[in-house]
Amino acid sequence: MSPDHQLQVPFRRLVPGAGMPERAHTGDAGYDLRSVERVDLAAGARALVRTGISVAIPEGYAGLVLPRSGLAVRHGISLVNTPGLIDSGYRGEIQVPLINHDREGTFLIEEGTRIAQLVLVRVAAAAFAEVEFLESATDGRGEGGFGSSGP
């Protein structure tokens, strides 16, 4: 996508030197979010980690804060609430609630560590209408959920 057609998302550095959201590769869906502080995340512990930035997500969009797969696979670090949701009206600092699932080791988050990724998605405005019965789904799923399609 050319720069003329990219979604413009203003951001503000709340901490000098805070990293702007950046994609590692052209075409990546996620924009890396970096820590602006050092955090020792003990085994089993949680921490709300600062990014030092705020964003103005345009109306009609939302930001999803997602874990970085490498942190999860190599170190057992993930988000406490996945995904985190940033509404277009929010202007506060993006903070990332991380958890260390490791049973023994402390994970050191250095200043500048990529701790999560931000994905921007369109959101639909919906008008919910209460009905007495719902039409059957065309795929036959019905009320099956939580593993109903098999192991």
Please tell me how large the radius of gyration is: 19 Å
Biggest sheet strand order reads 2-11-6-8
Question: Could you name the CATH class?
Answer: Mainly Beta
Multimeric organization: single chain
Contiguous helical run count: 1
Strand content: 25-35%
Would you count the extended β strands for me?
A: 11
- Low-confidence runs of at least 5 consecutive residues: none
The major beta sheet can be summarized as: 4 strands, antiparallel
The helix/strand series, from N terminus to C terminus, equals EEEEEEHEEEEE
Query: What would the CATH topology be?
Result: Deoxyuridine 5'-Triphosphate Nucleotidohydrolase, Chain A
Structural domains: how many: 1
Counting helices, strands and paired strands, the structural category is mainly beta
CATH superfamily: Deoxyuridine triphosphatase (dUTPase)
Average pLDDT:
93
The gross shape turns out to be: globular
Helix % is: under 10%
Measured between the Cα atoms of the first and last residue, the distance is: 39 Å
